[in-house]
Specification:
Blueprint (H helix, E strand, L loop, with lengths): L17 H11 L1 H5 L2 H12 L5 H25 L10 H20 L5 H23 L6 H18 L4 E2 L9 H4 L3 H21 L1 H29 L5 H24 L4 H24 L2 E2 L3 H18 L8
Antiparallel strand pairs: 1-2
Helix pairs in contact: 1-12, 4-5, 4-6, 6-7, 6-12, 7-12, 7-13, 9-10, 9-12, 10-11, 10-12, 12-13
């Protein structure tokens, strides 16, 4: 189900929203967190027969986001030693919580409107990470940080509710590497790298790693959408797709490592900012890579502006309360 028609359902108008890219990215990102493609296909067939109401699905969506938020907190606690964070049991517990959140998300995807479910999961993750940082880790709280969380949440909601993009045909193994050489895709990568460099110069190292982690997540999305499509076509077991699988694993590992380096900043800041950046990257990279048509609507500009404002507010180091 998850790697079949649900990714590219047919419509007579052929129109898809910018949220379509976000929906595909969110569904396929859990391949790394949960397990292999065949395992996910089996899991999907079991879950489809279970049946959940929308209310139950959204409640489980909140639980999924909560697990991701707790997992991020555990990875921060276990990553105190930056050179050997993988040796701490709390870091592995964080990975386990993330995987559990991914599996729970797969359970509820078929039973709730994605346009509602995605913001519910993302905002739950952001809020739980923010609250753990403020309440448990005693990080300084401020109105600026709360507003940053609010704008980041607005960006995800605005992105998920857009309705003006058209997805091109499925990508086969024959044109994946050709797509990587498209001038529009190369130009977008240069633009993203310039923005990340500017953020590093103006906001510091922790913001650099947060954006790099989101960038790696966006690149991983390209490989996963391609793999899911070739699985539909029955052409996944080819040398080209084995190369794409290797790239997926590489980007997944790099994403986790850069997340860990980004978690050196306060958890409340990172947990609120990262989901917004990770939601935007698949849209920015996927549109030129796959040749999707993306209409520049007011809602899309609202999503981008809200994400930028949220990141700017969250980039400022919190000020400790005055004695």
């Amino acid at each position: 189900r998850y790697f079949g028609s649900s990714f590219f359902p047919n419509r007579s108008a052929g129109m898809r929203s910018p949220a379509s890219l976000l929906q595909v990215a969110t569904k396929v990102r859990y391949v790394t967190e949960v397990g292999s493609l065949p395992a996910l296909l089996t899991l999907g067939s079991v879950m489809s027969a279970s049946g959940l109401t929308t209310a139950e699905s959204l409640t489980l969506g909140v639980c999924s986001g909560t697990l991701h938020g707790v997992g991020m907190a555990l990875r921060k606690l276990g990553g105190t030693a930056q050179d050997s964070y993988w040796a701490d049991w709390r870091w592995w517990m964080g990975i386990l919580f993330d995987a559990s959140g991914g599996a729970l998300f797969l359970t509820v995807v078929p039973f709730a409107p994605t346009v509602i479910l995605l913001p519910v999961v993302a905002i739950s993750q952001m809020s739980v990470g923010y609250l753990i940082g403020i309440c448990y880790m005693a990080e300084p709280k401020s109105l600026q940080g709360f507003l940053g969380l609010l704008f980041a949440a607005v960006s995800i909601i605005a992105l998920a509710t857009q309705t003006a993009a058209e997805i091109a045909g499925p990508v086969s193994q024959l044109n994946f590497f050709e797509s990587a050489r498209r001038p529009a895709f190369v130009a977008m990568n240069c633009l993203v790298i310039l923005v990340i460099a500017a953020a590093y110069l103006s906001m510091g190292q922790s913001m650099l790693f947060m954006l790099l982690a989101a960038y790696a997540d966006g690149l991983q999305f390209l490989t996963t959408r391609t793999l899911s499509t070739t699985l539909q076509l029955g052409t996944i077991w080819t040398p080209g797709m084995f190369c794409v699988m290797g790239l997926k694993v590489f980007f997944a590992v790099v994403n986790l490592h850069w997340q860990q380096l980004g978690l050196t900043r306060t958890l409340s800041q990172f947990a609120a900012a990262y989901p917004a950046a990770a939601a935007i990257m698949p849209v920015l990279l996927g549109t030129p890579f796959f040749g999707d048509h993306l209409e520049l609507s007011r809602g899309l500009f609202l999503a981008l502006a809200s994400a930028l404002l949220g990141l700017l507010l969250l980039s400022e180091p919190p000020k400790p309360p005055s004695p």
